[in-house]
Design brief:
- The structure is a single chain.
- 10% of the residues lie in helices and 36% in strands.
- With 161 residues, the chain is mainly beta.
- It has a domain of 83 residues: Immunoglobulin-like, CATH 2.60.40.10.
- The strands form 5 sheets. Strands 5, 8, 11 and 12 form a 4-stranded mixed β-sheet that branches. Strands 7-6-9-10 form a 4-stranded antiparallel β-sheet, with no helix packed on it. Strands 1-2 form a two-stranded antiparallel ribbon.
- The longest helix has 16 residues.
Length: 161
């Protein structure tokens, strides 16, 4: 008798002792879960969105306690840009807030408090723009000018002006 054969027989005996007979009880319905994403949701469920600020703790805090930044996003002709996305980040790169402009290009966004932040504005057909803002104790008015265009030209080649 060889050592490997004896080990296999011992494993088979051990497994058969620990194997339970199949149960006739209904098993709970299981849903596949991607690692790190949580349970799958129905496509019709809407999930509320909120902006968060870093307070140095592990728990996120909504970024609504400080003064707001408000203004208008305009194109090179001075027209308000509908649907431009504005993102507020800390100087270390953590996203603190996000909003989308209304049809007239106007926006308003809360901040976590006074301090320095980076405001980035982006819209289809325009080059994105970023600015470092110093927010004090009161609301800050800040307009953004999105100059230039981006996207394919008439020949289908990328362009940026």
């Amino acid at each position: 008798m060889d050592v490997e054969g004896e080990r296999l027989r011992t494993q088979d005996q051990h497994q058969s002792e620990n194997t339970q007979a199949p149960s006739n009880e209904p098993q709970p319905e299981r849903q596949p879960v991607l690692v790190g994403t949580g349970a799958l949701r129905k496509p019709t469920e809407a999930e509320p969105q909120a902006a968060y600020a870093s307070t140095g703790s592990a728990d996120p805090v909504p970024a609504t306690g400080g003064p707001s930044i408000a203004g208008q996003v305009r194109d090179a002709e001075g027209t308000g840009v509908d649907g431009a996305t504005l993102t507020l980040t800390s100087l270390t790169g953590r996203q603190l807030g996000r909003t989308v402009t209304r049809s007239d290009g106007r926006y308003s966004m809360p901040t976590p408090g006074s301090g320095s932040y980076i405001l980035t504005a982006a819209a289809d057909g325009h080059q994105p723009r970023a600015a470092t803002l110093e927010v004090g104790d009161g609301p800050l008015a800040y307009d953004v000018l999105l100059g230039g265009t981006s996207g394919p030209d008439d020949a289908g080649l990328p362009r940026a002006r």
